[in-house]
Amino acid sequence: MRISALTMSLAGLSVLALALPVRAQEVSSSNEALQTPPSVERSVVFNFGVGQGNPLDLAGSAALSFEIGEALDLTVRATETIEINLFSPSDQVGDVAVLVGKRAASGKSWVRASVGLGWARSLDYGEGYDCYWFSCEYDETEAVAMGLALQGDTALAIWRSFGIGLTVFGNLNPARSFAGFSLGLYLGRQR
Prior knowledge:
The protein has one helix at residues 5-30, and strands at 44-54, 58-69, 72-82, 92-106, 109-132, 135-159, 162-172, 178-188. The chain has 191 residues and is mainly beta. The chain has one domain (5-31, 42-188): Porin (Beta Barrel), CATH 2.40.160.20.
């Protein structure tokens, strides 16, 4: 059974999101000198969405962003684009990346531009051979490379901890560069 990079990344982000409040509470109670003043609440936002990818068809993204300074965010993200084939395996390309971004807010909306490093992976299937009825064997070509990860977000906070928005993402790498966009939900304290 093959588990995609996106599935593994979503599992890792979920564990991190669940562990974050416990770890933040431990740090604040044990280290008084580095504690954030009570009047300043740092934002943590989880977003996920689906959309269109290039060079493939369907795209998905998930990201967990932490405010690390005035209008400065640290983002951990996973993206994947998948070609839709009904009768053969689907080619895939995606990445797992860590990015730093600058955010600007106005009222209930905000935008962010981020750049960082991403581990990109592509899986391509060749033509089928040894076909019997509805089953064929396929050659697989897998490529892995580090690349320049780029991401842009814009969101509208409908409520204090819930918003909708657009994520544009890409990865420039020597193996197989890609780009895509996704429309999705933004959960967490947004400002």
